Amino acid sequence: MTQADDEQGRDVLVLGADLAGRGPADLLIRDGSFADPADARPDADRVDAAGLVALPGLVDLHTHLREPGREDAETVETGTRAAARGGYTAVLAMANTNPVTDTAEAAEHLLGVASRVGSAQVVPVGAVSKGLEGEELAELGLMARSAARTRVFSDDGHCVADARLMRRALEYVRAFDGVVAQHAQDPRLAGRDACCAEGELSGRLGLPGWPAVAEAGIVARDVQLAELTRSRLHVCHVSTAETVDVLRWAKQRGVEVTAEVTPHHLLLTVDELTGYDPTFKVNPPLRSGEDVAALRDALSDGTIDAVGTDHAPHARHDKEHAFVDAAFGMLGLETALAVVVETMVRPGALGWGDVATRMSSVPAHIARLPGQGRPLRVGEPANLVLVDPERRSVVDRDASLSLSRNNPWHGRDLPDPMVATWWGGRRTFTRS
Ligand SMILES: [Zn+2]
């Protein structure tokens, strides 16, 4: 009998955790939900959580699970185990699999796989365009009405570059309260071989550059299209100070725009590229220290609403190449909270309640997930993470639960806060 089976039907009493910065209290997990701790049965499993912080299960708006099509890099099973270890109870699975999630059948297939092997809720993201080709809208309405109840649509990996198609997608998703999540990058300004933020360093390293305007220009266009269509826009992985300025302007106008930042853009800069290590090749690219500071400020003041990992596992044979030929992307699920603690909580830019909003309740709301991001209250689903705010360790990529090893934090001393995760009352991670 596994630990998870063992816990079925048995009370779990979590004692004395600080509830997202609001002070210590007890929590009772019973039959998948939180119940009144005063009602705990005498044989309840007791978890001493004094000194730990309790957060609602984290929700990742931006995960690449690689299944179907690239099960050598990640599967639903391994990706959601990595998610649970990172404190996540739900992940939005991007559509750029093979086949692409651009039909109701594909979205429902992914749901079926996840229901058998998932250690977290898997929410299929629907493609905006058929085959991610940017020409013809995918079956947005059918995906929205399917069992997958798709609300987030994205061609992530590609930008919806055609303004007319973007406008039509925004108009379409409005009917079912959906949102278009844009990978903002003008392909005419960022060429196919671009692999480094454009600037003094890209010139010195001889790497083809991406100008910041390739991102901010698309975001400026899209927030105006969102205003025109009165629809919802979400900006994936914001990486530049210019984009932050555009988002501030749009929010002041009342445009329904939300945005996410990745952990790696909160800590790493383009200077990592001086060693030509392809682990640091990512799309959008790592930027300057000024950009990193602007992104932290924006996450702190709410201009950037959420953290999204852009967890992008790659098999060794796709990543271990000369820098210009290697695949884009890095792992993120297991270390996201660690990086947020390091960059935002320890310097005092976010409190634990803010972490709960930026990494759980706000992403759940953007994706319209009713059972996620809920407060730690009696009657709510028992999606819970316990974290130790003081613990640190040196990251070892070989200790990962992901199938891939493209971990940009390998060898780095970082917070190591994860203690345990429960998803719907089922324990999905326990620190050994
Ligand atoms: Zn992307």
Automatic annotation (TrEMBL):
Pathway the protein acts in: Pyrimidine metabolism; UMP biosynthesis via de novo pathway; (S)-dihydroorotate from bicarbonate: step 3/3
Domain of life: Bacteria
Cofactor binding remark: Binds 2 Zn(2+) ions per subunit.
Function noted in UniProt: Catalyzes the reversible cyclization of carbamoyl aspartate to dihydroorotate.
CDD domains per record: DHOase_IIa
Binding positions (Zn(2+) 1): H62, H64, D156, D310
The name this protein goes by in its record: Dihydroorotase
UniProt GO BP: 'de novo' UMP biosynthetic process; purine nucleobase catabolic process
Binding site for Zn(2+) 2: D156, H183, H237
Record key words, sorted: Hydrolase, Metal-binding, Pyrimidine biosynthesis, Zinc
Catalyzed chemical reaction(s): (S)-dihydroorotate + H2O = N-carbamoyl-L-aspartate + H(+)
Lineage: Bacteria, Bacillati, Actinomycetota, Actinomycetes, Propionibacteriales
PANTHER family referenced in this protein's UniProt entry, alphabetically: ALLANTOINASE
Positions with a binding annotation for substrate: H64, L65, R66, N96, N283, H314, F328, G329
One Pfam family hit: DHOase
Cellular compartments per GO CC: cytoplasm
Enzyme Commission numbers on file: 3.5.2.3
Species assigned in the record: Microlunatus flavus
Protein family according to the UniProt entry: Belongs to the metallo-dependent hydrolases superfamily. DHOase family. Class I DHOase subfamily.
